[in-house]
């Protein structure tokens, strides 16, 4: 099971089981997804707010953003609710590729 870490401090952010797929496999052909989307995460302070940034709990590095009403991925596909992490700001260990599995 892959784990995803803050690139700055190494804090665990989420695991591969939290990932949400969204593009019906199209991202694998075009390779345009620059973000990962997860289920709503307990540690993200997202209660009572429609949208905001997601900060690493340990070092407060901005690793992504969330929006309950949805956000488009870089591939054009909408994800709702969206808990979006920037691939460039997180690190993965334990899996081969930084590509979410389809549901
Ligand atoms: Zn961090
Ligand atoms: Zn995408």
UniProtKB/TrEMBL annotation:
<comment type="similarity">
    <text>Belongs to the protein-tyrosine phosphatase family. Non-receptor class dual specificity subfamily.</text>
</comment>
<protein>
    <submittedName>
        <fullName>Similar to dual-specificity protein phosphatase</fullName>
    </submittedName>
</protein>
């Amino acid at each position: 099971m892959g784990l995803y870490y803050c690139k700055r401090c190494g804090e665990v952010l989420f695991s591969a089981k939290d990932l949400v797929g969204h593009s019906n496999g199209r991202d694998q052909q075009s390779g345009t997804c620059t973000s990962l989307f997860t289920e709503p995460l307990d540690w993200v302070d997202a209660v009572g707010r429609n949208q905001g940034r997601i900060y690493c709990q340990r070092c407060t590095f901005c690793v992504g953003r969330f929006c309950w009403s949805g956000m488009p991925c870089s591939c054009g596909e909408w994800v709702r609710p969206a808990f979006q992490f920037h691939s460039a700001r997180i690190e993965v260990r334990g899996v081969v590729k930084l590509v979410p599995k389809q549901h």
